[in-house]
Write a structure and sequence with these properties.
Layout lengths: L5 E2 L2 E2 L4 E4 L17 E2 L8 H15 L2 E4 L6 H14 L4 E4 L5 H14 L6 H11 L4 E6 L12 H6 L7 E6 L3 E4 L14 E6 L6 H9 L4 E6 L4 H5 L4 E7 L3 H9 L4 E2 L6 E2 L25
Parallel strand pairs: 3-4, 3-5, 5-6, 10-11
Antiparallel strand pairs: 1-2, 7-8, 7-12, 8-9, 10-12, 13-14
């Protein structure tokens, strides 16, 4: 596995992985995990201040990948797009996959691990879409009355009003919801993983004593509940969980085993069918009308 790259005889400065809150910057998984750049209070600080901070990141690191939850306030996501537009830069990637906050924090940490390797910015940014497939995340909820990100039928909504009801929910990769009981189960990963657990205001040990052994996790750690989790799940009575691949060598092998190409618009190396930095997609076959740049 590469231990870094050199450019013009000097060590390559790694691509910056930025998050929009300190709670999304999980503790390092290993000694090579790079620190996250935390863009604090993006929506409330003066625009010029945040703009200057982001500009400095670009100047120092060359490229910045901003990982932002879809549960973040609309003002935060709007401000990020404004900042990118003002800087007129294709060196900023805004990455907002549809994962619960804890799963997104885990994915951001995996990108921080990979940022220490000899991966180009485009490949590193594209790696996020690949690694999502190896993450299982969900939550134990005290109510699903306000849950709108996972399908919930009327019967389950009605049961959520019964005192003491709890629900086990898998949000990714395949949404599933079951009422907690002696036979309640969720399909887990078919490969070795670690589990991260974040406890909210729900007294239960089901995740650590039942789900974790059923999923045969190889290690388990706890972390504070991300601030955006209650909003994502529709309740603060929650225990959020996420399984992931912790080993950098495995992550690196997964990413480097995928065929890579060059973005036809900006020329950066990518894996997959869309450039995360300039949003360009491969041109359509000749004779087929299509947009070459995403929005």
């Amino acid at each position: 596995m590469g231990r870094g790259a050199w450019e013009n005889g000097e060590p390559r400065v790694p691509t910056a992985i930025a998050v929009t809150g300190a709670d999304m910057a999980l503790p390092a998984q290993d000694e090579r995990t790079l620190p996250a750049a935390v863009l604090r209070d993006v929506d409330t600080r003066p625009l010029e201040q945040v703009l200057s901070e982001l500009q400095m990141l670009i100047e120092h690191h060359g490229h910045v990948i901003v990982v932002c939850s879809r549960a973040a306030p609309t003002a935060v996501r709007r401000r990020l797009h404004t900042l990118r537009s003002l800087l007129e830069s294709d060196r900023i990637a805004l990455f907002s996959p549809d994962l619960p906050p804890l799963g997104l924090a885990v994915l951001a940490r995996q990108l921080r691990q990979l940022a220490s390797c000899d991966l180009s910015p485009g490949v590193l940014a594209s790696a996020g879409r690949l690694l999502i497939h190896y993450i299982h995340c969900g939550a134990l909820l005290g109510s699903v009355a306000r849950l709108d990100r996972v399908p919930v039928d009327l019967k389950q909504h009605a049961k959520s009003w019964m005192p003491g009801s709890q629900f086990a929910v898998l949000a990714h990769p395949q949404p599933r919801l079951v009422r907690l009981g002696p036979d309640a189960s969720l399909d887990g990963p078919e490969f070795g993983t670690w589990m991260l657990v974040a406890k909210g205001r729900l007294p239960s040990d089901w995740v650590t004593t039942t789900l974790a052994p059923a999923w045969k996790v190889q290690g388990l750690r706890e972390t504070p509940l991300p601030a955006e989790s209650p909003g994502w799940w529709g309740t603060g009575r929650i225990i959020e969980f996420c399984t992931y691949l912790p080993d950098l060598s495995v992550l690196y092998q997964l990413v480097t085993s995928v065929r890579r190409g060059s973005c036809h618009w900006c020329g950066i190396d990518v894996i997959g069918d869309r450039c995360v930095f300039c949003s360009a997609v491969p041109p359509a076959p000749e004779g087929t009308p299509a947009l070459t740049r995403g929005t």
